[in-house]
Write a structure and sequence with these properties.
By secondary structure, the chain is an alpha+beta fold. It has two domains: 32-168, Beta-Lactamase (2-Layer Sandwich), CATH 3.30.450.20; 178-231, Arc Repressor Mutant, subunit A (Orthogonal Bundle), CATH 1.10.10. Helix content is 38%, strand content 23%. The chain is built from nine helices and seven strands, in the order ααββαααβββββαααα. It has a seven-stranded antiparallel β-sheet with strand order 2-1-5-4-3-6-7. α7 (193-200) packs across α8. It is elongated, with a radius of gyration of 23 Å. The mean pLDDT is 86.
């Protein structure tokens, strides 16, 4: 890089508000309600935690590791935490490569602060890195402090499809209708359109329309491709 370019870059960096002591002093702790960390799924470790973790929880940011997180989760929420992570793992195990970046998953649970009080955090997790084999290797995890409630809603765990701007059923990630799922299962069983038409007592043209919609929703060029997607396990 040319020297003139380096000087320009240095000037830009120094113009950031993060470089200004005055600007960094105007933020007050009460205005900070969230923090994030980077989780290495392959090594099962937390690689980085931003300093806001200390402001929200009272703990030093370098204290946070997986063992510490499990320790500060409310005992009554620990099973829910593990079950939610297992649900999303089962979901992501069927994703391939860039599909990982389409989705986020979220839910809430309680953690104990350094003062001994419990706060409820809204956890949202999204893919940050996928390796050349299609494995999810790093995730960005955001925690936002929310209003405390005793009970967790049964609908608390959610998976969000960023490309469709909507929440989805973890067991039905393409949001297929009941009829479309029925037709898809018959296709997987080796039935052709005419056989499906006879089985469901609806017209063949209707079956063809459903087949087209299924492929469009799943962004697949063929049912062979779609079935591979549905059965994909790393």
């Amino acid at each position: 890089m040319k020297e003139i370019d380096v000087k320009k870059w240095d000037k830009l960096v120094k113009s950031q508000k993060s470089q200004s002591e005055i600007d960094n002093q105007i933020q007050i702790p009460e205005q900070i309600h969230s923090y994030f960390f980077i989780f290495d799924c392959f090594q099962n470790t937390i690689l980085f935690t931003n300093s806001a973790f200390e402001t929200v929880t009272g703990y030093k940011f370098d204290e946070l590791n997986l063992e510490f997180l499990l320790k500060i989760i409310h005992p009554d929420d620990l099973d829910y935490f593990l079950e939610s992570e297992e649900r999303f793992l089962n979901f992501t195990n069927k994703l391939s490569f860039n599909e990982h970046f389409k989705y986020t998953h979220s839910y809430t649970y309680r953690i104990k602060t350094k003062s001994g009080d419990y706060i409820r955090v809204f956890q949202e997790c999204q893919a940050l890195e996928v390796n050349n084999s299609g494995h999810l290797t790093k995730t960005l995890v955001n925690h936002k402090k929310i209003e405390y409630t005793e009970n967790v809603s049964v609908t608390d765990f959610k998976i969000y499809d960023k490309s469709q701007n909507s929440y989805i059923d973890a067991e039905n990630r393409y949001n297929l209708t009941k009829r479309e799922l029925e037709i898809l299962n018959l296709i997987k069983n080796g039935m052709n359109s005419q056989q499906i038409s006879d089985e469901l007592t609806i017209s063949k043209n209707t079956i063809l329309t459903h087949r087209k919609n299924i492929l469009n929703k799943s962004n697949s060029s063929s049912f062979i491709e779609l079935i591979k997607k549905l059965s994909y396990v790393h």
